[in-house]
From TrEMBL:
InterPro entries: YjdM (IPR004624), YjdM_C (IPR013988), YjdM_N (IPR013987). Belongs to the YjdM family. This is Alkylphosphonate utilization protein. It holds the Pfam family YjdM. Residues 48-116 form the Protein YjdM C-terminal domain. NCBIfam families: phnA. Residues 5-33 form the Protein YjdM N-terminal domain. It comes from Streptomyces mobaraensis.
Length: 117
């Protein structure tokens, strides 16, 4: 029962499969939300979306979906960390969320690593 899943955007492997809300490539290990493939074909109103496709807005509360390394800090941001009162910005290198995280201070995150709560 193979569904019509898009190939991996990293290595172009045709063996992608679904794992929860993400698509996974077994060859290179890349994970991505299925909405990424759809939004590349369908540029909508320019809305910023989280890892599972929910539209984000200023003041939302989000949860980090994967552990992140932070330069200059001995421990990173753990998956499941809540970030309150985000602000959407035109960031550098895809970092489109401006926020303050307890214990880390002000920083920018990519919308692809958070989920709206």
């Amino acid at each position: 029962m193979t569904e019509n899943l898009p190939p991996c955007p990293e290595c172009s492997s045709a063996y992608t499969y679904e794992m929860g809300a993400l698509l996974v490539c077994p060859e290179c290990g890349h994970e991505w939300p299925p909405a990424t493939a759809e939004s590349a074909d369908n540029p909508e109103d320019g809305a910023i979306r989280d890892a599972v496709g929910n539209v984000l807005a200023d003041g939302d509360t989000v949860t980090v979906v994967k552990s992140l390394k932070v330069k200059g800090h001995p421990t990173g941001i753990k998956a499941g960390t809540k970030v309150r009162n985000i602000r959407l910005v035109e960031g550098v290198a895809g970092h489109d969320i401006d926020c303050r995280i307890d214990g880390f201070g002000a920083m920018q995150l990519k919308s692809s690593v958070v989920k709206k709560t």
